[in-house]
Write a structure and sequence with these properties.
Shape: globular
Strand content: 5-15%
Oligomer: single chain
CATH topology of the largest domain: MetI-like fold
Amino acid sequence: MKRRVFLGAVSAAALGGLTGCTGGTPGGASGSTPTSDAEANSIRYLVEQPEDAADLEKLRTHLKTYEQANPGTTVKLEAMPSENMRTVLQTQLRSGEGPDVFSWGSGPGYAGALAKAGLLFDLTAAYAQYKWPVYAFAKERVTFDGKTYGIPGEMETIGLFFNKKIFADQGVQQPKTLGELTAAAQKFKGAGLTPIAGADQEGWPGGHMLSMALGSRIGSKGVDALVSGQGSWNSPDVVAAIQQWHDWNEAGLLGKSPTSQTTDGAAALFYSGDAAVLPTGSWAIPAIDKNAKFDVGYMPFPAESGAGVFTGGLGSGPFVSASSKKTDAAVKFLNFLASPEHGRWTVEELGTIPAFPVDTTGVKASPLFAQVLKDTSTFSQGTGDVGPNIDVLETDRFNDVMWDGMQAVLSGQQTPQEVAESLDKVAKPPTMSTTTTHVPPATRRAQARLGIALVLPLMAMVVIFFLFPLVNAIYYAFVDFNGTNLNPPFIGLRNFIELAHDPQVWPALENNAIWIVIGTAAPLVIGFALALLMWRVQRASLAYRVAFFLPYILPQVAVGVVWGWIYDPTRGWLNQVLDAVGLDRLAGGWLGDPDTALYAVLGTAVWATTGFIFLILLSALRNVDAELVDASRIDGANGLQRVWYIVLPQIMPVFLMVTTLTLVGGFSVFDIIFVMTGGGPAGATDVLGTYAYSSAFQLNRISYGTTLALVITVLAIPFTVALNRLQRRLSLQGTGA
């Protein structure tokens, strides 16, 4: 679910039976006894950073009531952006330095994976002691191998919000079938509106799209059969569910380039009254109530012959770290989070719905929230059907294929049938070798005592920050390490063989090649041209140098975010400028179109790096023999000849140096692509660096990701060595050696 955010962490709530992720058996979680009463009663509570900072302060104030009711107890509230939680949290838990209580997703792929790694404290006894009244179906989502590890998160639904005013103005009733919704969308398009605010730049909304269409088509039992392996993901129903979004997109009913539209951008379209329908979840209700200046309705994704069903799931809930030394205090705190009083507080203050009975009599709620309260009450009592949210029931690898597949369909790279075949293939678990091995690191010959004393600090840095990671990477490339198995099995060359046959590697390598050629040539040419223009400029020289160099020192994350706004298909100034000058036919979804996404990101990188090359080459030009240049001018040499025969040879060592830096950057590029597209749409901007990251940290295939990283290193070494040798040779020639 998208809602891996603070609200789920605060509310011990869930929509059971509807969420989950990669499976797991508990890894023997147990807590240590505290060393002192004072230490035991001070616990760290890590939640996900809320979209509204005011919500964090509400929680902080609310926790004071718990501290007042439990003198001597202190809850240290910490918040972390949700996008950082997946890697940072697991690293902290494995190191034993993690929080005592933390928010995390329910289901086998989230809590289950941590339980399998032995990182969660077993709460089975606590459930028996405190008799927490969590709904049975929700409790199942935090129970693995017979042990219960947490309190499930808040109940959520996913459906279609619609602008009642637009519907009324266009004479359209709330659609009761899929055909009626399609007809309404076509009418809205004819009126110059965005019929459905499609947004899939981030990837995960594609999972919601499939979940909604498939849940309404085959119901919860049908989706459960697919997830449990009793059905085929290559079935006609799955293909038809994907086809529906494809057909809407082809008909222009999802707006401009949904793969380049963010969820925030789609929501802004809806709030402004420019879009009639917004596909999203109940977590968006507070923002809709705040920003929409019109009446909003909420309906499930329609079926072909009926109203369809809502898609539902669970948000993040609280868990206790297995390494916590304060488990007694942590469990007592969880008892507070599972209390009816806290549950009602989350309903009133945060607009979330706990996964246990709460008296909502007298609660003031907007019409939208009141509807969700009623719907989730029906679901929790088992009297209504609700389609499961697929991404929290499936594995990370499956989700990656699903998200990329939906992006590929919406960007025209794959057909619905091809995506369904990929889903069916990835749903089958891979096999793994069981042989193990270990390669010890090599030793070094001792040097003279004085030499060792002088060189030891540098040697230590080289060993710690270069040799050890390199040897470790080589080791991991020959084993199957997923980040949790302490004795990974030896698999020989299997990672390299898989790499050679991996269909995602070669497009990524091709993108690397494009990046290397354009990303090296363009900054060099532009930077050198700017340096030549500024060579003899004296007035305001410092101001020009600062202006050109400034983009290089800006954080790549900031650069990526700002240029993402510039490329926005609906509100970005690039498309607005093109429209204003009559070139609207050139406007498009720059980051959502697979034909332009890589070059759009590449253009951003060129803008950011050219200033560095400009400044280095300008410094080199200051050392060029001006008399030779003037003499060549007197001899009749034109400007191009003077640059080629006089200037360039004198700065060639420096020119090769910056060439080497940009070339290596082309092999190792990661951050700007990760920030702007994440490798999407559907892998169109994936390079080896982003693919290695997603393999290692999103799919937990550490060994395969390390193998990809080694390939990057191996490919870069020959070019770097050749350029360095050429640079050294030219330097020696310049000194007469």
